[in-house]
Write a structure and sequence with these properties.
By secondary structure, the chain is mostly beta strands. The protein has four helices and 13 strands. The protein folds into three domains: about 45 residues, no CATH class; about 180 residues, Beta Barrel (Porin), CATH 2.40.160; about 35 residues, photosynthetic oxygen evolving center fold (2-Layer Sandwich). The strands form two sheets. Strands 2-4-5-8-10-11-12-13 form an eight-stranded antiparallel β-barrel. Strands 1-9 form a two-stranded antiparallel ribbon. It is globular and about 80 Å long.
Amino acid sequence: MRFRPLLALVLAFCLTFAAAPSSVSAAFVLGNERGNAKFAGVVNTGQAGECTSLPSSSTGSISADGNIKDLCLQPTEVFVKLATKKRQQADFVPAKIISPRFNTSIDQVYGDLSGGKFTQKGGIDFSLFTVLGPNGTEYPLVFSAKDMEASANGKSIAPGTEFSGTTFVPSYRTGDFLDPKSRAKDTGVDYAQGLVALGGDDEDLARENVKRDLTGNGVITLSIDSVDATTNEFSGTFVAIQPSDNDLGSKDPTDIKITGNLYGRKG
């Protein structure tokens, strides 16, 4: 009886080697069939969030009809709109991406392309990250390409083509998110227990107590710099302006400008 645990251990050890994948199955997992070739080249390099780029010498032209797939938007610079001095008009000033630093890209976005108008249908179309402004304030935001509708200034996609349009920006918080006083939109308590004496007449307190699922809208411009007509690929830059998080209505959002690289491919 006392040998049974040892026998079970030996049997488990043998089964582990018996179940090990063969060279054929391992090749299948690592091969092109599973699309892991690109992953193997960028894993642990910090480059997984980078969009593909085309040589600047790619000056072809492709039709602005059909559909777009694998649209990638990679932020490289972020600006926050605020006044850095008293009695100064608010303007966009540089900010720093602090979390996460290498996972801010939107990728595999796809949609219809008709008459030079792109209508987004799906994909990995939003990214959550936080930036630090020069005033020391942190600004969480949802970088979004949801419901993008952008029209080009021509009937073809070529270097110099620009798509301009709008995007939908969802709420950074969900209705079940609890703030430090356990208040939320769909759950939690209705008010901060220690502040009941104010009677709800304080506007700032009311904004903290009454959570609202406030969304927003942004504007975006896609500028095409390079086009490969043989592969239907294009690349360039983008500029997007959208609101930051409003903490479920408890504070006013701040305009954020995001610039970066783009890549796309027609289906």
